[in-house]
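Protocol step 6 of 9: fold each sequence in the batch and record its structure tokens directly after the sequence line. For illustration, a two-sequence batch is reproduced in full.

Sequence one:
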Amino acid sequence: MRSRLFLLSTLVLVGITTVTIGAPVEETIEAIKAVEIPQMGSGNLTLNRRFISGVPGLPQCPNADFLLLTSKCLDEKTIQEICVFPANPEVRSESNTECPDDTTCMDFLTDPIGGQEIPFALCVDNGSIKEFRKDRKASYLCKPYLISVTNGIATFSIIVYDAHSNPAKVYAIKFSSGNQSGTRYNTYNYSRIIDSKKGQKIEVCIETETNAEIELAVMFSYLDGSYISNGINK
């Protein structure tokens, strides 16, 4: 804090008042646990399955002859999946999966190494999600978290929902963690794979238009590890 001296020409300085300022208040950073997915790290987990046992709300194709191609969050409680017929990739179908109670839909991306970057959605247990809210007045808001992974890689998901639980586009979603940072503009979600370690800090920020007087919920979660597009865990 700067000390300012105000010179008052009509007054005579007759004393000095000393104010003792305490130590700075430390920033409170919430720790968040990684999303736990059975088999993730065994090498046999694939997105191209209709269903993976033990994973609540994972997208699945109603027709057993179709394979999951991609998926996304339609709203806070609904995943929309696109399935493809392997014998003829031009034949596709869309369906919706409702998330179980105490879970929220979160959007992620696969690792582009070995293939293309593919969006996929999961119904994540609310215990593995941190949320902060933007009130009607704030146009820029940030929140730090501590994350911990076991293999040095994290796949994070940030998604913004409005008061009606629908995805809400904002001017920008930003993150910074160590020497890594990034920004996505005009979006409601942001997923990225980053290098990480136990107890690493990540800061999540959203920026809205200055006149956007709306209430928003910003959700953050992360996976311990990453997927590549052929379904093999990295």
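Sequence two, same batch, same settings:
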Amino acid sequence: MADAQTSDAVPKAKRKGDKGYKKETIKEKLDRLPVGVTTPTASASLPGGNNISSVDDAKKFATETLPDLGLKLKKTIKDVKKEIKGLKKEFNGRDYEGIKVEKQLIRQGTGNNLTFLEFYTLKEFTQPNPYNRHLFWYDRKANRIVEGIGRDRATNDLMHGPYKKYLGDLVVEEGWYYLGAKDGRWELYDKNYNLLNKEYYERGFYQDSEISYYDESKTKIKEVKPKLYGKVTGEYLTFNESGTLAEQGMMDDSVKVGRWIEYYPTGNRRKKETQYGKDCYDNGFESYVVYEYDEKGKITFESPKIKKN
């Protein structure tokens, strides 16, 4: 059962001298910057043509460049850390991106499985981006986080601002939300604080996604081609000029996978469902049409491959 808690319930971060503390490398320290910290636009120049304008740039420099330059750059990296630290802007707990928020806490489980969720929601409802297909809400009645394009606003608030999940006193997941959609850097850890996954979002879509538009002012999205670490991977979307959904499906390294769905221009009725392989290595799988529908939602075709119960 989940219980709402006061701020005293949130575990404190481990500090030097505490049990379990260990000295971290520069990269690890940059990796572990708190979820409530952002960096305004600024930059620092280093030898070799390296420019640093964010914590992620500094982390990349420390990881990829330092081994090649040797010990003589230790002082330079230290100076860069100071510059980055000076650029930090702490989340004030009252508003995020100019929109007022309020803090929420959820406690789940008991004993070794005790977890805490620390996050923020909109203080007053603000309309989210209509092109976002995955929105996250705090259901106050059920006291849990749920996903859905639309929810009852009388009992549900959109997530907005920093999010952290604790297992005991360890952070096992952290990221940001912007009007219900994932935003910024998201990281997932195991109970030993080993990094399991890291993804970067920009207000609901992978940060490096290729987005095309119908208009020059870039208000009407035509296509979202997901890109993760340079590969076309993730949820692919196309929209009609009216803003309704035209097609959606998953990509795995430029290969269509799973169930793809086409919609009629209204965007709320399915036109066709096509099944593809489970991943990009499923070369032997032959895609096939699963269902076809008329404009009223009636099935006009059903694949003989569908197993009957």
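Proceed to step 7 once all outputs are recorded. Observation for sequence two: Residues 188 and 194 are 9 Å apart (CA to CA).
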